[in-house]
Amino acid sequence: MQKLKSMLGRIVVICLMSPAVFGQTDFNITKINPVLLKDADAVVRLDETVWEIKSQAEAVMKCRSVVTVLNEKGEDGHGQLRVRYDKFTKIIDISGNIYDASGKQVKKLRNSEIEDYGYGGGADNISDARVKLASFGKKSYAYPYTIEYVYEVRDRNMMSYPGWSPDQEEGSAAELSVYRILAPAGFKFRYKEYNGVPAVVKSKGAEGVDVYEWSMKDQPARKSSDLYQLPAIDRTPLVMAAPSDFEVQDYKGNFNSWEDFGKFYGTLNAGRDALPPAVAAEVKALTKSARSEREKAELIYKWMQAKSRYVSIQLGIGGWQTIDATTVANTGYGDCKALTNFTLAALRSVGINCYTALIRAGDEEVIKPDFPSNQFNHAIACAVVDKDTMWLECTSQTTKPNFMGSFTGGRYALLVTPDGGKLVRTQDYKAIQNVRNSRALVKLGETGDGEVDVKVLYTGLQHESRARVINSGSKEEQKKWLLNHINLPSLDLQRFELIQGQDPSVTEKLTLNVRNCATKTGTRLFVKPSLLSRPFELPAVTERTTDFYLPVSDYNFTDLDTVSYEVPANYKLETTLPAFQIASAFGSYEMKTTFENNKLICARKVVMNGGRYGSKDFAAWVDFLKKIRKADRAQVVFVENKL
Question: Which keywords are on file for this protein (predicted)?
């Protein structure tokens, strides 16, 4: 009986992976709808993912991809297959084929064409994850040709179910994309559809298996990404799936709610925050004279940064279970979970309430808060000090306490409390916090060349790029970076200094010789008041049919620029002085100029508000940019006084 069941199970697998299920047996390129060939480098004939749940502890994933490659770009996007595996994931099979333009099979993938290498290796990355890389090589066959990859893996890490998004790569069209989940009859799991993905179709499979299927057909090639597209999680069709009850290694849990998620993480890491007695005594001595909880937390954070370094450790359940605080104290290294746990242990040793916070880190990264599931890739610390929260990024040796920045700011985090998980927001960084305050003194020569001294204070998100340069670049690298980021066409950088403040902030001091700082034409000097100001790019189109997004990490800012020109004494003002005030839902612009005692002073203020805006607002956004660019091009004309 058992043998018969195994055979039936195998028959189901064969049927699922058979091209006959969707009629995908003929790969002749003449069968492709001409509409899909427009602007396409490749056409995905079939993209199929099957997630077959065996139990709370095991599943099998089967994937099949068939792509007609039209040119080298299409081959670059689809020519290789990467399959990751680790302690919990075993690759059962990988196969591949190439078909010519008529659909005739001309080549099979050989074992020698499948490489195996460590995943994310390096001195600061310890992992049991590996990758199988399958490839037929560059220019595998004369274009156009069709490449097929099929693979199957067994997964025993049931904390995460694969999500599905049929959104194809840029330049690729898609005939058919399918996601299917198979579950034992009555097996409970959760799923949710986003961004217009067609609703699930439910049916019964062999032996009463529950079948859930999503599919999309005939998607034309996606053109180059526009300047203001929404984040992928908000614009691409998406299906998210997650377990209710699950097992991984010797642990059981469920993800029915964020509270449950937090309980599982807390159970997984319970009892791992004990410090060695000598280290606990060191922390108490360190904070003995502190006058507040905030001061204690800041002292502990800086102490931790000096004592440890980040090493990514992903071994088995160690991807979620932390190294204990004693080991980190003895070795001086750990991953994000371990360094966070070590910091929390130190904070608790002096009576500060604190919690692990799970978060999705990265610029503009967000999660779907309405779907409790494993959407996190990072851990940070949250301390409650003087009735306020303090966020601590424990993997960095240079980040200031309570600065989240673009890496973890402005998004949801899951606090792991004794009562379970609690979803909270990390702090946003508004325009008033992300300031560039620039003051420049320009000594103009009669030829239009200028000697320029500049002092700029950067705060909030605006300081991040320069802080990275300070902390990771040599003096020569810092100079090269500055030359690439100073908005002037022709200059000699005589001296520079970058100073990191405690706020956090960076002060930048520059001494420049600028050729053609003003334009000399005959007896006149044409001076641009907005020298050194941030330029704004105009989009290529003025209308759109979808919402648009101004990334808050780039568009939440305040620029304050003051430029003082010392004009040669033998020149007099010939034109009126420009002044502008522009108001918009996207921000504001203001410029004022004065001239007295041969000194031209231009004060410019720009405030931008990033975020999501409706398609109907796009014309207003373009108009706002045009008005700013026109104001920035205003010139003041001086004429030589020959009296």
Answer: Signal
Could you tell me which of 553, 561, 437 has the C-alpha nearest to residue 501?
A: 437
H helices of 310-423, in order, are 325-331, 336-349, 405-408
Residue 490 in tokens: 């022709």
Residues 600/639, Cβ–Cβ less than 8 Å: no
Query: What are the pLDDT digits (tens) for 454-495?
Result: 999 999 999 999 999 999 889 999 999 999 999 887 889 999
Instruction: Domain 435-640: give its CATH architecture.
Output: Sandwich (2.60)
pLDDT > 90: percent of the chain: 81
> Which CATH number is associated with domain 16-251?
2.60.40.3140
At which residue do the structure tokens 């009735």 appear? 387
**Are 149 and 94 within 8 A, CB to CB?**
yes
Predicted model pTM: 0.90
The dihedral sign for the CA sequence 621, 622, 623, 626: positive
CA distance 401 to 337: 17
Give the sheet arrangement for strand 201-204, strand by strand.
Answer: 105-108, 89-99, 145-155, 58-69, 42-55, 172-183, 210-219, 201-204
Neighbour tally for 291: CB within 10 Å: 7
